[in-house]
Structures are given as C-alpha cells and as structure tokens.
C-alpha cells in the first residue's frame, strides 16, 4: 500500500494526531510505502513518525496566520486566503497532476483541502483526519464578508469530495459535512522518567508549535517549583531549566512533569489527559475549536484556566495549587488510533488483523 499523507504545519497538533495512526498502520500493513508532505521541521516529523517515509518538504495549507499562539491575524489571513483561491481551478489541476504522477493508493490529509480536491480530479480515493477543518474556521471568521462565500464553497466542496472525514474526539461538530466518521481520542502515550529534581515540582511550559514567548525571567520565585522552558527562549530565571536538556521526547517529558502550561490545542490536551498530566491553560482569542477541547479536558483530566494577564505576570500559585491537588481522573482510552487505522486500511483496500493496538499499555 502506498499512502500519501499531507500534514499541516499550523502548529504541531496535526502531526500529534497523524503520527500514532501512521505508526499503527505500518505495524499491520505489509509492503507499506509512505510519502509525507509537510513544512514541519524534519526533526519533529522524525521524532513522531517511526515508519520509514519519503518527505516532500512543502505546504499546501497555512491554516491561519498567527500573531502568537493565542491570536489570529485576521487581516493577513484574509489576504492569504484570497491569494490562495485567486485561480483555484488551476491549483486543483496542478495538484491532480502531481498526485497522478505520484500514484498513491490513498491520500490522507490533516487537514489541507487542496489535496482532497486534487485527488477527486485525479480519481484517487482520499480521507481527512482531524478535530477541525479549515472551512468551518473560515466561516467562523469570514462568513459575514461578501468576498468569502465563493472561497468557502470551494473549501467545502473539497472536504465533501473525500470518501470520509475522520473526525477525532474531541472535535468540532462539522455539520456542513455529510461524510464525517467519528473516531475516539488519538494521543501518543509516554513513559515516565525521574527528572532528578529532588522533589521539586516540574512545570512544563509548552505553548505549541507557534511562537509564543512568556516572560518567565520576570516571574516571582515559588519554592519547590521548576519551570521547564524551550532552549530558544534563553530564559535567565533561577528556577528555569531548558526542556530539551532532559533528552526526552515531548510525550515522555509531558508524562514525567507535574503539570503543563499551554493553550487549548488537540495534541497537548489529549496527550496530557491520556498520560495523566494536569493542565493549566490560557484560552485562545475567538478560536472556535477550543470549546470542545476544554469541555473534553474538563471531563477527562485535571485542568485549570488562567487569564492572560496572570500568566504573563507569573501569578500561578493558585493555579498550581488547584491542579496539583485535584484528584486524578480515569485515564481516557486512545481508541481513536485503532479506529482511524482500520478506516484508512479499509479505504486503501488492504487487509488487517481484526484488532489493532492503541489503548494504553499496562
């Protein structure tokens, strides 16, 4: 089976959803050939995707142009969408030719829609896998603009052309799509490591794959708290540690800390809940996906919402006390891995054993 996968580089969440499924497919599918197209850093892809693959380092979607991890640049995003659809039929024709030459058995996107339109034109079956789609977000932000309707129609037509849209849990409703097939949560599971902090609490700061630096060096010191921050921040706080210095994958590090500070995003929210890690989160401005994510995390994990001003100033004592002393929740099952794997293998016409791994190992 030759699977072509297009992974959005709008943050790391699209990769976090896709990678466990690709790894599961590789385990059960003989003669599996994988081609990936993504503008994500090659090292990030290699950390998550264990199956061998050929990489095409480019992007067919941009999602939204961001000011930082919590704010969308609406003016720049509107301009980018107008440019992307200025000659949409020509872009679809080019994509169809590219895919026809590549000759995959199946196309999977998370969550670009151009490959779906190209696949339909080339007569190649295609699926999409995600908790959101760009058409719904486009309608949320620009649906009342007179210029937006033709673009929205082209986006919807592309998503509707897929054989199925595998909507992961938690996920947006996607009422405009009749081809939605719901699957359970998808999350990588990590191994807990002793970080050697002599009983101090390790708090990971992980705002996702979009630049969003917090002024941690200005935060007040809190006894027994160590802040794990990205090396790129070059943070000088006496209690800060470089998160990369532990030599762990993101999921293993997330599994090993006492809490994570983040914003609502599918990958971090589900991986935190499925690995038993408490979450302190700052809401995103008008991001329509976040409500279903927050509702799910509230029901399936330990969490606490903090305002932007308090996070900026490092006023975290109450939030830390709250999440660290909450009673642990039952760990959710990652049954979406098996369900999505089965759907993809079935659509590719391949055969697989009746049971696919994906629930939490004992």
Distance between the termini: 31 Å
The class by helix and strand makeup works out as: alpha/beta
Largest sheet: number of strands, sense, barrel closure: 7 strands, parallel
Number of DSSP-assigned strands = 15
Annotated CATH topology of the largest domain: Rossmann fold
Mean pLDDT rating: 95
Give me the number of helical elements: 13
Strand order of the largest sheet: 3-2-1-6-7-8-9
CATH class of the largest domain: Alpha Beta
Number of domains: 2
H/E series: EHEHEEEHHEHEHHEEEEEHEHEHEHHH
Using only C-alpha atoms, the radius of gyration works out to 21 Å
- Bin the strand percentage: 15-25%
Q: How much helix, percentage-wise, in residues?
A: 25-40%
Multimerization status: single chain
Shape: globular
Low-confidence stretches: 350-362
CATH architecture of the largest domain: 3-Layer(aba) Sandwich
The CATH homologous superfamily of the largest domain corresponds to Glycogen Phosphorylase B
